[in-house]
TrEMBL record, chain A:
Gene Ontology biological process terms, A to Z: rRNA (guanine-N7)-methylation; tRNA methylation
Main location: cytoplasm
Keyword Metal-binding among record annotations: no
Protein name: Multifunctional methyltransferase subunit TRM112-like protein
Pfam families: Trm112p
Domain of life: Eukaryota
Automatic annotation (TrEMBL), chain B:
Region (Disordered): 369-397
Gene Ontology biological process terms in this record: tRNA methylation; tRNA wobble uridine modification
This protein's name: Methyltransferase type 11 domain-containing protein
Residue stretches in coiled coil: none
Length: 126, 449
Protein backbone atom coordinates (compact mmCIF):
# COMPACT_ATOMS: atom_id res chain seq x y z
CA UNK A 1 0.00 0.00 0.00
CA UNK A 2 1.54 3.26 -1.10
CA UNK A 3 0.96 6.46 0.81
CA UNK A 4 -0.92 7.96 -2.11
CA UNK A 5 -3.38 5.08 -1.74
CA UNK A 6 -3.51 5.51 2.01
CA UNK A 7 -4.44 9.13 1.50
CA UNK A 8 -7.72 8.06 -0.12
CA UNK A 9 -8.68 5.54 2.52
CA UNK A 10 -11.12 6.01 5.29
CA UNK A 11 -13.03 3.89 7.72
CA UNK A 12 -16.80 3.53 7.34
CA UNK A 13 -17.54 1.57 10.43
CA UNK A 14 -21.08 2.16 11.65
CA UNK A 15 -21.20 4.93 14.20
CA UNK A 16 -18.10 6.75 13.07
CA UNK A 17 -18.68 10.49 12.78
CA UNK A 18 -18.58 11.93 9.28
CA UNK A 19 -14.93 12.42 8.50
CA UNK A 20 -14.04 10.66 11.72
CA UNK A 21 -12.61 7.69 9.94
CA UNK A 22 -9.87 9.65 8.19
CA UNK A 23 -6.96 9.49 8.17
CA UNK A 24 -6.29 5.93 9.20
CA UNK A 25 -3.35 5.57 11.53
CA UNK A 26 -0.63 3.34 10.16
CA UNK A 27 1.11 0.79 12.32
CA UNK A 28 3.56 -0.83 9.97
CA UNK A 29 5.55 -3.95 10.66
CA UNK A 30 7.11 -4.11 7.22
CA UNK A 31 7.86 -1.21 4.94
CA UNK A 32 9.45 -1.40 1.54
CA UNK A 33 11.07 1.37 -0.44
CA UNK A 34 11.03 1.09 -4.21
CA UNK A 35 12.53 3.04 -7.03
CA UNK A 36 9.81 4.61 -9.08
CA UNK A 37 10.43 6.77 -12.11
CA UNK A 38 10.01 10.44 -11.31
CA UNK A 39 7.38 12.22 -13.36
CA UNK A 40 7.33 15.87 -12.39
CA UNK A 41 4.03 16.74 -14.04
CA UNK A 42 2.32 13.75 -12.49
CA UNK A 43 3.45 14.65 -8.98
CA UNK A 44 2.53 18.31 -9.39
CA UNK A 45 -0.96 17.35 -10.49
CA UNK A 46 -1.36 14.91 -7.64
CA UNK A 47 -0.60 17.40 -4.88
CA UNK A 48 -3.92 19.28 -4.97
CA UNK A 49 -5.74 15.94 -4.78
CA UNK A 50 -4.17 14.74 -1.57
CA UNK A 51 -4.91 15.72 1.98
CA UNK A 52 -1.56 17.26 2.73
CA UNK A 53 -1.75 17.01 6.50
CA UNK A 54 -2.69 13.35 6.35
CA UNK A 55 0.20 12.67 3.98
CA UNK A 56 2.68 14.27 6.35
CA UNK A 57 1.28 12.35 9.29
CA UNK A 58 1.52 9.08 7.43
CA UNK A 59 5.03 9.75 6.20
CA UNK A 60 6.13 10.63 9.70
CA UNK A 61 4.66 7.46 11.19
CA UNK A 62 6.81 5.48 8.79
CA UNK A 63 9.91 7.52 9.45
CA UNK A 64 9.96 8.97 5.97
CA UNK A 65 8.93 12.52 6.68
CA UNK A 66 12.44 13.81 5.94
CA UNK A 67 12.16 17.57 5.55
CA UNK A 68 8.81 17.89 3.89
CA UNK A 69 7.32 21.28 4.83
CA UNK A 70 4.08 21.58 6.78
CA UNK A 71 2.78 24.08 4.30
CA UNK A 72 2.88 23.74 0.58
CA UNK A 73 5.48 26.09 -0.87
CA UNK A 74 4.21 28.62 -3.37
CA UNK A 75 4.66 27.66 -7.01
CA UNK A 76 5.61 24.13 -6.10
CA UNK A 77 4.87 22.97 -9.65
CA UNK A 78 8.30 24.14 -10.72
CA UNK A 79 10.13 23.23 -7.57
CA UNK A 80 11.79 20.01 -8.64
CA UNK A 81 13.52 19.48 -5.36
CA UNK A 82 10.30 19.65 -3.46
CA UNK A 83 8.45 17.53 -5.98
CA UNK A 84 11.07 14.80 -5.79
CA UNK A 85 10.55 14.59 -2.04
CA UNK A 86 6.81 14.38 -2.52
CA UNK A 87 7.32 11.76 -5.20
CA UNK A 88 9.33 9.67 -2.79
CA UNK A 89 6.74 9.78 -0.08
CA UNK A 90 3.71 9.29 -2.31
CA UNK A 91 4.96 6.54 -4.56
CA UNK A 92 8.16 4.95 -3.31
CA UNK A 93 7.28 4.07 0.26
CA UNK A 94 5.08 1.00 0.60
CA UNK A 95 3.55 -0.64 3.62
CA UNK A 96 3.71 -4.39 3.07
CA UNK A 97 2.54 -5.60 6.47
CA UNK A 98 0.78 -3.75 9.20
CA UNK A 99 -2.45 -2.30 10.43
CA UNK A 100 -4.63 0.66 9.55
CA UNK A 101 -6.46 1.97 12.58
CA UNK A 102 -9.65 3.98 12.50
CA UNK A 103 -9.05 7.12 14.58
CA UNK A 104 -12.65 7.24 15.75
CA UNK A 105 -13.60 3.64 16.47
CA UNK A 106 -10.19 2.05 16.90
CA UNK A 107 -11.17 -0.65 14.42
CA UNK A 108 -8.11 -2.23 12.84
CA UNK A 109 -7.81 -3.12 9.18
CA UNK A 110 -4.94 -5.45 8.35
CA UNK A 111 -2.47 -4.99 5.51
CA UNK A 112 -1.07 -8.24 4.18
CA UNK A 113 1.39 -8.51 1.31
CA UNK A 114 0.74 -4.89 0.54
CA UNK A 115 -3.03 -5.44 0.31
CA UNK A 116 -5.28 -3.65 2.78
CA UNK A 117 -8.32 -5.60 3.83
CA UNK A 118 -11.06 -3.02 4.26
CA UNK A 119 -13.94 -5.44 4.60
CA UNK A 120 -16.43 -4.69 7.31
CA UNK A 121 -18.28 -7.29 9.29
CA UNK A 122 -22.07 -7.33 9.01
CA UNK A 123 -22.45 -5.55 12.28
CA UNK A 124 -20.15 -2.78 11.18
CA UNK A 125 -21.93 -2.09 7.92
CA UNK A 126 -24.04 1.06 8.01
CA UNK B 1 -34.79 -9.60 1.99
CA UNK B 2 -31.50 -7.79 2.24
CA UNK B 3 -30.07 -10.81 3.99
CA UNK B 4 -31.24 -13.14 1.27
CA UNK B 5 -29.92 -10.88 -1.44
CA UNK B 6 -26.60 -10.77 0.28
CA UNK B 7 -26.57 -14.53 0.71
CA UNK B 8 -27.36 -15.13 -2.93
CA UNK B 9 -24.45 -12.93 -3.87
CA UNK B 10 -22.20 -14.79 -1.45
CA UNK B 11 -23.14 -18.14 -2.90
CA UNK B 12 -23.36 -17.29 -6.55
CA UNK B 13 -20.92 -14.51 -7.04
CA UNK B 14 -18.30 -14.35 -4.33
CA UNK B 15 -17.69 -18.04 -3.80
CA UNK B 16 -17.65 -18.71 -7.50
CA UNK B 17 -15.12 -16.00 -8.20
CA UNK B 18 -12.94 -17.27 -5.43
CA UNK B 19 -13.01 -20.66 -6.98
CA UNK B 20 -12.37 -19.57 -10.53
CA UNK B 21 -9.84 -16.85 -9.70
CA UNK B 22 -6.80 -18.93 -10.70
CA UNK B 23 -8.26 -19.33 -14.16
CA UNK B 24 -8.55 -15.62 -14.72
CA UNK B 25 -5.04 -15.66 -15.98
CA UNK B 26 -6.36 -17.11 -19.18
CA UNK B 27 -5.94 -15.08 -22.30
CA UNK B 28 -9.66 -15.04 -22.82
CA UNK B 29 -10.14 -12.41 -20.14
CA UNK B 30 -9.10 -9.42 -22.15
CA UNK B 31 -9.94 -5.77 -21.74
CA UNK B 32 -12.76 -4.12 -23.65
CA UNK B 33 -11.27 -1.70 -26.16
CA UNK B 34 -13.69 1.11 -25.40
CA UNK B 35 -12.83 0.93 -21.74
CA UNK B 36 -9.18 1.00 -22.63
CA UNK B 37 -9.81 4.03 -24.80
CA UNK B 38 -11.74 5.78 -22.06
CA UNK B 39 -8.84 5.27 -19.69
CA UNK B 40 -6.24 6.33 -22.21
CA UNK B 41 -8.12 9.56 -22.78
CA UNK B 42 -7.87 10.60 -19.15
CA UNK B 43 -5.66 13.51 -18.17
CA UNK B 44 -2.21 12.86 -16.77
CA UNK B 45 -2.32 12.91 -13.01
CA UNK B 46 -5.87 11.57 -12.85
CA UNK B 47 -6.88 9.47 -9.87
CA UNK B 48 -8.85 6.47 -11.07
CA UNK B 49 -10.72 3.86 -9.09
CA UNK B 50 -11.59 0.50 -10.64
CA UNK B 51 -14.37 -0.86 -8.48
CA UNK B 52 -14.53 -4.60 -8.91
CA UNK B 53 -11.18 -4.70 -10.65
CA UNK B 54 -10.91 -8.47 -10.70
CA UNK B 55 -7.39 -9.48 -11.60
CA UNK B 56 -6.62 -5.90 -12.58
CA UNK B 57 -6.83 -6.05 -16.33
CA UNK B 58 -7.48 -2.32 -16.61
CA UNK B 59 -5.00 -1.19 -14.01
CA UNK B 60 -2.00 -1.04 -16.30
CA UNK B 61 -3.61 1.31 -18.80
CA UNK B 62 -2.35 4.90 -19.02
CA UNK B 63 0.72 5.10 -16.85
CA UNK B 64 0.23 8.85 -16.52
CA UNK B 65 -2.63 8.20 -14.15
CA UNK B 66 -2.83 6.63 -10.70
CA UNK B 67 -5.14 3.68 -10.45
CA UNK B 68 -6.59 2.01 -7.40
CA UNK B 69 -8.29 -1.30 -7.79
CA UNK B 70 -10.53 -3.02 -5.34
CA UNK B 71 -12.48 -6.23 -5.36
CA UNK B 72 -14.31 -8.48 -2.96
CA UNK B 73 -12.38 -11.53 -4.10
CA UNK B 74 -9.06 -12.09 -2.32
CA UNK B 75 -7.45 -14.36 -4.89
CA UNK B 76 -8.21 -11.96 -7.71
CA UNK B 77 -6.87 -9.01 -5.76
CA UNK B 78 -3.73 -10.97 -4.96
CA UNK B 79 -3.31 -11.72 -8.61
CA UNK B 80 -3.55 -8.01 -9.44
CA UNK B 81 -1.12 -7.23 -6.67
CA UNK B 82 1.39 -9.66 -8.12
CA UNK B 83 1.30 -7.60 -11.27
CA UNK B 84 2.39 -4.61 -9.25
CA UNK B 85 -0.94 -2.82 -8.94
CA UNK B 86 -2.31 -0.89 -5.99
CA UNK B 87 -5.29 -2.90 -4.88
CA UNK B 88 -7.34 -3.75 -1.83
CA UNK B 89 -10.16 -5.93 -0.68
CA UNK B 90 -13.49 -4.36 0.09
CA UNK B 91 -17.20 -4.57 -0.64
CA UNK B 92 -18.50 -2.25 -3.33
CA UNK B 93 -21.47 -1.21 -1.21
CA UNK B 94 -19.05 0.03 1.46
CA UNK B 95 -16.15 1.62 -0.34
CA UNK B 96 -13.33 2.60 1.99
CA UNK B 97 -12.71 5.82 0.13
CA UNK B 98 -13.30 9.34 1.26
CA UNK B 99 -15.84 11.50 -0.53
CA UNK B 100 -15.05 12.96 -3.92
CA UNK B 101 -11.47 11.79 -4.08
CA UNK B 102 -11.41 10.28 -7.54
CA UNK B 103 -11.41 11.86 -10.99
CA UNK B 104 -12.65 8.69 -12.64
CA UNK B 105 -14.49 5.62 -11.43
CA UNK B 106 -14.85 2.38 -13.39
CA UNK B 107 -17.46 -0.27 -12.85
CA UNK B 108 -16.94 -2.87 -15.52
CA UNK B 109 -19.18 -5.92 -15.36
CA UNK B 110 -19.86 -5.60 -11.68
CA UNK B 111 -23.26 -4.29 -10.74
CA UNK B 112 -25.04 -6.97 -12.72
CA UNK B 113 -24.03 -9.28 -9.90
CA UNK B 114 -26.21 -7.47 -7.41
CA UNK B 115 -29.40 -9.33 -6.89
CA UNK B 116 -31.85 -6.52 -6.19
CA UNK B 117 -32.53 -3.20 -7.81
CA UNK B 118 -32.03 -1.48 -4.50
CA UNK B 119 -28.52 -2.89 -4.14
CA UNK B 120 -27.65 -1.97 -7.70
CA UNK B 121 -28.71 1.61 -7.02
CA UNK B 122 -26.74 1.63 -3.78
CA UNK B 123 -23.65 0.42 -5.59
CA UNK B 124 -23.90 3.23 -8.12
CA UNK B 125 -24.51 5.83 -5.43
CA UNK B 126 -21.60 4.60 -3.37
CA UNK B 127 -19.30 4.92 -6.38
CA UNK B 128 -20.71 8.35 -7.15
CA UNK B 129 -19.91 9.40 -3.60
CA UNK B 130 -16.22 8.83 -4.19
CA UNK B 131 -16.23 10.73 -7.47
CA UNK B 132 -15.40 14.42 -7.55
CA UNK B 133 -17.80 16.87 -9.11
CA UNK B 134 -17.05 16.94 -12.82
CA UNK B 135 -15.49 13.52 -12.66
CA UNK B 136 -16.67 10.67 -14.85
CA UNK B 137 -17.92 7.18 -14.19
CA UNK B 138 -18.03 4.38 -16.71
CA UNK B 139 -20.37 1.47 -16.09
CA UNK B 140 -20.61 -1.75 -18.12
CA UNK B 141 -23.27 -4.35 -17.47
CA UNK B 142 -24.39 -7.43 -19.34
CA UNK B 143 -27.20 -6.85 -21.76
CA UNK B 144 -30.29 -8.95 -21.93
CA UNK B 145 -30.50 -8.23 -25.63
CA UNK B 146 -27.61 -9.94 -27.27
CA UNK B 147 -27.03 -9.51 -30.96
CA UNK B 148 -28.33 -12.84 -32.02
CA UNK B 149 -30.13 -14.21 -29.05
CA UNK B 150 -32.18 -13.07 -26.14
CA UNK B 151 -32.29 -14.03 -22.52
CA UNK B 152 -35.83 -14.80 -21.59
CA UNK B 153 -35.31 -13.79 -18.02
CA UNK B 154 -33.34 -11.01 -16.47
CA UNK B 155 -32.12 -13.00 -13.53
CA UNK B 156 -30.01 -15.87 -14.70
CA UNK B 157 -27.41 -18.31 -13.58
CA UNK B 158 -24.52 -18.80 -15.88
CA UNK B 159 -22.17 -21.73 -15.52
CA UNK B 160 -18.46 -21.34 -15.69
CA UNK B 161 -15.91 -23.96 -16.53
CA UNK B 162 -12.18 -23.70 -16.73
CA UNK B 163 -10.93 -23.64 -20.27
CA UNK B 164 -9.76 -26.85 -21.80
CA UNK B 165 -6.08 -27.47 -22.51
CA UNK B 166 -4.78 -26.11 -25.76
CA UNK B 167 -5.01 -28.44 -28.69
CA UNK B 168 -3.97 -27.72 -32.21
CA UNK B 169 -6.78 -26.82 -34.45
CA UNK B 170 -6.35 -29.48 -37.08
CA UNK B 171 -5.78 -32.33 -34.67
CA UNK B 172 -8.75 -31.60 -32.54
CA UNK B 173 -11.02 -30.94 -35.42
CA UNK B 174 -10.47 -34.24 -37.08
CA UNK B 175 -10.37 -36.03 -33.79
CA UNK B 176 -13.46 -34.33 -32.63
CA UNK B 177 -15.35 -34.96 -35.78
CA UNK B 178 -14.22 -38.53 -35.83
CA UNK B 179 -15.56 -39.02 -32.36
CA UNK B 180 -18.93 -37.68 -33.26
CA UNK B 181 -19.06 -39.70 -36.39
CA UNK B 182 -18.29 -42.78 -34.41
CA UNK B 183 -21.18 -42.21 -32.14
CA UNK B 184 -23.74 -44.89 -32.25
CA UNK B 185 -26.27 -42.28 -33.07
CA UNK B 186 -24.41 -40.59 -35.87
CA UNK B 187 -27.52 -39.00 -37.19
CA UNK B 188 -28.27 -37.42 -33.85
CA UNK B 189 -24.82 -35.87 -33.70
CA UNK B 190 -25.32 -34.24 -37.04
CA UNK B 191 -28.77 -33.07 -36.16
CA UNK B 192 -27.53 -31.58 -32.95
CA UNK B 193 -24.87 -29.69 -34.73
CA UNK B 194 -27.21 -28.25 -37.27
CA UNK B 195 -29.70 -27.50 -34.63
CA UNK B 196 -27.09 -25.60 -32.74
CA UNK B 197 -26.26 -23.52 -35.76
CA UNK B 198 -29.90 -22.71 -36.07
CA UNK B 199 -30.10 -21.97 -32.40
CA UNK B 200 -27.62 -19.21 -32.66
CA UNK B 201 -29.88 -17.19 -34.86
CA UNK B 202 -33.05 -17.72 -32.92
CA UNK B 203 -33.86 -18.72 -29.43
CA UNK B 204 -35.54 -21.84 -30.76
CA UNK B 205 -33.43 -24.76 -31.72
CA UNK B 206 -34.38 -27.15 -34.36
CA UNK B 207 -33.08 -30.04 -36.22
CA UNK B 208 -31.87 -29.98 -39.73
CA UNK B 209 -33.82 -33.00 -40.66
CA UNK B 210 -32.89 -34.80 -43.76
CA UNK B 211 -29.48 -33.34 -44.43
CA UNK B 212 -26.46 -35.59 -44.66
CA UNK B 213 -23.21 -33.99 -43.72
CA UNK B 214 -19.85 -35.04 -44.85
CA UNK B 215 -17.00 -34.88 -42.40
CA UNK B 216 -15.62 -31.94 -44.24
CA UNK B 217 -18.85 -30.02 -44.17
CA UNK B 218 -19.29 -30.70 -40.51
CA UNK B 219 -15.85 -29.37 -39.78
CA UNK B 220 -16.43 -26.32 -41.87
CA UNK B 221 -19.70 -25.59 -40.19
CA UNK B 222 -18.37 -26.08 -36.72
CA UNK B 223 -15.49 -23.79 -37.44
CA UNK B 224 -17.91 -21.20 -38.67
CA UNK B 225 -19.99 -21.58 -35.60
CA UNK B 226 -16.98 -21.09 -33.38
CA UNK B 227 -16.06 -17.96 -35.23
CA UNK B 228 -19.62 -16.84 -35.25
CA UNK B 229 -20.02 -17.15 -31.55
CA UNK B 230 -16.71 -15.52 -30.97
CA UNK B 231 -17.80 -12.57 -33.02
CA UNK B 232 -20.71 -11.95 -30.73
CA UNK B 233 -18.61 -10.96 -27.84
CA UNK B 234 -15.02 -10.92 -28.80
CA UNK B 235 -12.88 -7.90 -28.36
CA UNK B 236 -11.46 -8.61 -31.75
CA UNK B 237 -11.98 -5.94 -34.31
CA UNK B 238 -14.88 -7.12 -36.39
CA UNK B 239 -13.58 -5.27 -39.38
CA UNK B 240 -10.82 -7.81 -39.55
CA UNK B 241 -11.04 -9.16 -43.05
CA UNK B 242 -10.63 -12.82 -42.44
CA UNK B 243 -13.11 -12.70 -39.64
CA UNK B 244 -15.60 -10.81 -41.76
CA UNK B 245 -15.38 -13.31 -44.57
CA UNK B 246 -16.14 -16.13 -42.22
CA UNK B 247 -19.11 -14.30 -40.85
CA UNK B 248 -20.45 -13.65 -44.31
CA UNK B 249 -20.06 -17.24 -45.29
CA UNK B 250 -21.90 -18.29 -42.22
CA UNK B 251 -24.76 -15.94 -42.71
CA UNK B 252 -25.19 -17.32 -46.16
CA UNK B 253 -25.83 -20.77 -44.84
CA UNK B 254 -29.38 -21.74 -45.35
CA UNK B 255 -30.85 -23.08 -42.26
CA UNK B 256 -34.39 -24.26 -42.08
CA UNK B 257 -36.13 -23.90 -38.85
CA UNK B 258 -38.53 -26.69 -38.10
CA UNK B 259 -41.27 -26.79 -35.59
CA UNK B 260 -40.20 -28.24 -32.33
CA UNK B 261 -41.51 -31.58 -31.31
CA UNK B 262 -41.02 -33.87 -28.40
CA UNK B 263 -37.95 -35.53 -29.79
CA UNK B 264 -36.06 -32.27 -29.87
CA UNK B 265 -36.00 -32.05 -26.13
CA UNK B 266 -33.54 -34.87 -25.97
CA UNK B 267 -31.42 -33.30 -28.64
CA UNK B 268 -31.38 -29.98 -26.92
CA UNK B 269 -30.19 -31.42 -23.68
CA UNK B 270 -27.34 -33.06 -25.45
CA UNK B 271 -26.60 -30.16 -27.72
CA UNK B 272 -24.90 -28.41 -24.89
CA UNK B 273 -22.37 -31.16 -24.57
CA UNK B 274 -21.84 -31.37 -28.28
CA UNK B 275 -21.47 -27.64 -28.57
CA UNK B 276 -18.93 -27.72 -25.85
CA UNK B 277 -16.96 -30.11 -27.90
CA UNK B 278 -17.21 -28.06 -31.04
CA UNK B 279 -16.06 -24.98 -29.24
CA UNK B 280 -12.97 -26.82 -28.06
CA UNK B 281 -11.98 -27.28 -31.65
CA UNK B 282 -11.27 -23.67 -32.26
CA UNK B 283 -8.02 -22.72 -30.61
CA UNK B 284 -8.41 -19.10 -31.55
CA UNK B 285 -11.93 -19.14 -30.34
CA UNK B 286 -10.74 -20.13 -26.95
CA UNK B 287 -7.81 -17.80 -26.86
CA UNK B 288 -9.88 -14.81 -27.73
CA UNK B 289 -12.91 -15.56 -25.73
CA UNK B 290 -13.93 -12.78 -23.51
CA UNK B 291 -15.41 -13.52 -20.18
CA UNK B 292 -18.71 -12.53 -21.65
CA UNK B 293 -18.26 -14.58 -24.76
CA UNK B 294 -17.86 -17.86 -23.03
CA UNK B 295 -20.93 -17.23 -21.03
CA UNK B 296 -23.13 -15.43 -23.42
CA UNK B 297 -22.63 -18.21 -25.87
CA UNK B 298 -23.98 -20.43 -23.18
CA UNK B 299 -27.26 -18.70 -23.34
CA UNK B 300 -28.74 -20.90 -25.98
CA UNK B 301 -29.15 -23.02 -22.93
CA UNK B 302 -31.27 -20.59 -21.05
CA UNK B 303 -33.81 -19.88 -23.74
CA UNK B 304 -33.97 -23.56 -24.35
CA UNK B 305 -34.79 -24.20 -20.78
CA UNK B 306 -37.40 -21.57 -20.51
CA UNK B 307 -39.02 -22.26 -23.79
CA UNK B 308 -42.55 -23.06 -22.88
CA UNK B 309 -44.84 -23.89 -25.74
CA UNK B 310 -43.41 -26.88 -27.54
CA UNK B 311 -43.05 -28.93 -24.43
CA UNK B 312 -46.60 -28.67 -23.43
CA UNK B 313 -47.40 -31.98 -24.95
CA UNK B 314 -44.54 -33.78 -23.23
CA UNK B 315 -45.59 -32.15 -20.09
CA UNK B 316 -49.09 -33.45 -19.99
CA UNK B 317 -47.77 -36.81 -21.03
CA UNK B 318 -45.81 -37.03 -17.86
CA UNK B 319 -48.78 -35.95 -15.87
CA UNK B 320 -46.86 -33.20 -14.19
CA UNK B 321 -48.40 -31.01 -11.63
CA UNK B 322 -49.72 -27.92 -13.37
CA UNK B 323 -50.51 -25.89 -10.30
CA UNK B 324 -49.10 -22.46 -9.67
CA UNK B 325 -45.48 -22.89 -8.77
CA UNK B 326 -44.03 -21.82 -5.48
CA UNK B 327 -42.32 -18.46 -5.28
CA UNK B 328 -40.14 -17.62 -8.24
CA UNK B 329 -36.84 -17.80 -6.39
CA UNK B 330 -37.32 -21.52 -6.23
CA UNK B 331 -36.71 -21.53 -9.95
CA UNK B 332 -33.22 -20.33 -9.43
CA UNK B 333 -32.38 -23.35 -7.37
CA UNK B 334 -34.08 -25.68 -9.77
CA UNK B 335 -32.14 -24.08 -12.60
CA UNK B 336 -28.98 -24.73 -10.86
CA UNK B 337 -29.73 -28.38 -10.43
CA UNK B 338 -30.22 -28.72 -14.13
CA UNK B 339 -27.23 -29.25 -16.33
CA UNK B 340 -27.09 -25.95 -18.16
CA UNK B 341 -25.13 -26.42 -21.34
CA UNK B 342 -21.93 -24.49 -21.19
CA UNK B 343 -19.53 -23.72 -23.90
CA UNK B 344 -16.14 -24.61 -22.51
CA UNK B 345 -15.84 -27.97 -21.00
CA UNK B 346 -13.62 -30.21 -19.09
CA UNK B 347 -12.12 -32.97 -21.12
CA UNK B 348 -15.23 -35.07 -21.19
CA UNK B 349 -15.81 -36.47 -24.59
CA UNK B 350 -19.05 -36.09 -26.40
CA UNK B 351 -20.03 -39.68 -25.84
CA UNK B 352 -19.87 -39.26 -22.13
CA UNK B 353 -21.92 -36.12 -22.33
CA UNK B 354 -24.59 -37.87 -24.27
CA UNK B 355 -24.86 -40.54 -21.68
CA UNK B 356 -25.32 -38.21 -18.77
CA UNK B 357 -28.37 -38.99 -16.85
CA UNK B 358 -30.84 -38.32 -19.60
CA UNK B 359 -33.98 -39.22 -17.82
CA UNK B 360 -33.63 -37.17 -14.72
CA UNK B 361 -32.62 -34.19 -16.75
CA UNK B 362 -35.56 -34.55 -18.98
CA UNK B 363 -38.00 -34.43 -16.15
CA UNK B 364 -36.16 -31.52 -14.60
CA UNK B 365 -36.43 -29.65 -17.85
CA UNK B 366 -40.12 -30.32 -18.04
CA UNK B 367 -40.71 -29.12 -14.53
CA UNK B 368 -38.92 -25.94 -15.40
CA UNK B 369 -41.02 -25.47 -18.46
CA UNK B 370 -44.18 -25.52 -16.50
CA UNK B 371 -42.95 -23.23 -13.81
CA UNK B 372 -41.60 -20.65 -16.14
CA UNK B 373 -44.89 -20.56 -17.95
CA UNK B 374 -47.08 -19.98 -15.01
CA UNK B 375 -45.04 -17.99 -12.61
CA UNK B 376 -44.38 -14.32 -12.81
CA UNK B 377 -40.96 -14.01 -14.25
CA UNK B 378 -37.97 -13.03 -12.23
CA UNK B 379 -38.46 -9.43 -13.11
CA UNK B 380 -37.00 -6.71 -11.09
CA UNK B 381 -39.33 -6.67 -8.17
CA UNK B 382 -38.45 -6.47 -4.56
CA UNK B 383 -39.61 -10.01 -4.13
CA UNK B 384 -37.18 -11.55 -6.43
CA UNK B 385 -34.70 -12.36 -3.76
CA UNK B 386 -36.78 -13.54 -0.92
CA UNK B 387 -35.28 -16.92 -1.41
CA UNK B 388 -34.77 -19.66 1.05
CA UNK B 389 -31.13 -20.35 1.49
CA UNK B 390 -31.70 -24.01 1.64
CA UNK B 391 -28.45 -24.81 -0.04
CA UNK B 392 -25.49 -22.76 1.04
CA UNK B 393 -23.06 -24.36 -1.35
CA UNK B 394 -22.53 -22.80 -4.74
CA UNK B 395 -24.84 -24.59 -7.09
CA UNK B 396 -23.11 -26.89 -9.48
CA UNK B 397 -24.16 -28.40 -12.69
CA UNK B 398 -23.41 -32.11 -12.93
CA UNK B 399 -20.24 -31.60 -14.87
CA UNK B 400 -18.79 -29.44 -12.12
CA UNK B 401 -19.39 -25.92 -13.38
CA UNK B 402 -20.05 -23.15 -10.89
CA UNK B 403 -23.08 -21.00 -11.50
CA UNK B 404 -22.77 -17.26 -11.37
CA UNK B 405 -25.74 -15.07 -10.75
CA UNK B 406 -26.41 -12.23 -13.18
CA UNK B 407 -29.12 -9.69 -13.49
CA UNK B 408 -28.91 -8.88 -17.17
CA UNK B 409 -30.01 -5.39 -18.09
CA UNK B 410 -32.64 -4.44 -20.62
CA UNK B 411 -32.10 -1.60 -23.01
CA UNK B 412 -32.49 1.67 -21.17
CA UNK B 413 -32.57 0.05 -17.75
CA UNK B 414 -29.17 1.25 -16.64
CA UNK B 415 -29.84 4.77 -17.83
CA UNK B 416 -33.21 4.76 -16.10
CA UNK B 417 -31.65 3.51 -12.89
CA UNK B 418 -29.28 6.44 -12.86
CA UNK B 419 -31.71 9.07 -14.03
CA UNK B 420 -34.40 8.13 -11.53
CA UNK B 421 -32.36 7.12 -8.53
CA UNK B 422 -28.96 8.79 -8.68
CA UNK B 423 -29.47 12.53 -9.07
CA UNK B 424 -25.80 13.21 -8.45
CA UNK B 425 -24.94 11.53 -11.75
CA UNK B 426 -25.76 12.88 -15.15
CA UNK B 427 -25.66 10.43 -18.05
CA UNK B 428 -23.61 11.90 -20.85
CA UNK B 429 -23.22 8.87 -23.09
CA UNK B 430 -24.92 5.51 -23.30
CA UNK B 431 -24.28 2.79 -25.82
CA UNK B 432 -24.20 -0.91 -26.55
CA UNK B 433 -20.78 -2.51 -26.69
CA UNK B 434 -20.65 -6.13 -27.73
CA UNK B 435 -22.81 -7.78 -25.14
CA UNK B 436 -22.97 -4.91 -22.71
CA UNK B 437 -25.05 -1.86 -21.97
CA UNK B 438 -22.70 0.96 -21.15
CA UNK B 439 -22.99 4.36 -19.58
CA UNK B 440 -20.63 7.23 -19.05
CA UNK B 441 -21.94 9.61 -16.43
CA UNK B 442 -20.66 12.77 -14.86
CA UNK B 443 -20.86 13.69 -11.19
CA UNK B 444 -22.79 16.84 -10.74
CA UNK B 445 -23.63 19.08 -7.85
CA UNK B 446 -27.02 18.40 -6.37
CA UNK B 447 -28.54 21.54 -4.98
CA UNK B 448 -30.74 20.96 -2.00
CA UNK B 449 -33.37 23.55 -1.45
Amino acid sequence: MKLLTHNMLTSHVRGVRPGGGFPLRIQATEVKVNNVDFNQEFVARMIPKVEWGALLEAAESLGHLSDLPHQLPPEYENNEDFLRKVHHVLLEVEVMEGILKCPDSGREFPITKGIPNMLLSEEEET
Amino acid sequence: MEKEASQLEKDHVHRVYEKIAPHFRDARYKAWPKVQQFLSDQEPGSLIADIGCGNGKYLHINSQTYKLGCDYCFPLVESARNDGHEVMVCHSLYLPYRNECFDVVLSIAVIHHFSTKERRVRAIKEMARTLRVGGQMMIYVWAMEQKRRKFEKQDVFVPWNPSPPSWTLSNTCSRGIQKSINQKDKRLAMDQHSAKLAGTSKARSSSFVGEKETTHNLFEKSLRWSLFSRSLDSVLDLSNQWHQRELNTFSNCNIQLDELNTGKLFEQIRQGGFMKHISNLSLRCRQNFEDNASEVAVEPGSPMIFHPVPFKSCYSELGQDTKQPPMSPAIIYDCSRVCLPDLLSHQKDVKQQLKIDYHSKQSAFRKLQNRSRTDSSLQDTDNDCSMATRNKQPQRSPNGACLRYYHVFKEGELVELIEHHVPELHVIHSYFDHANWCVIAEKIHVWKI
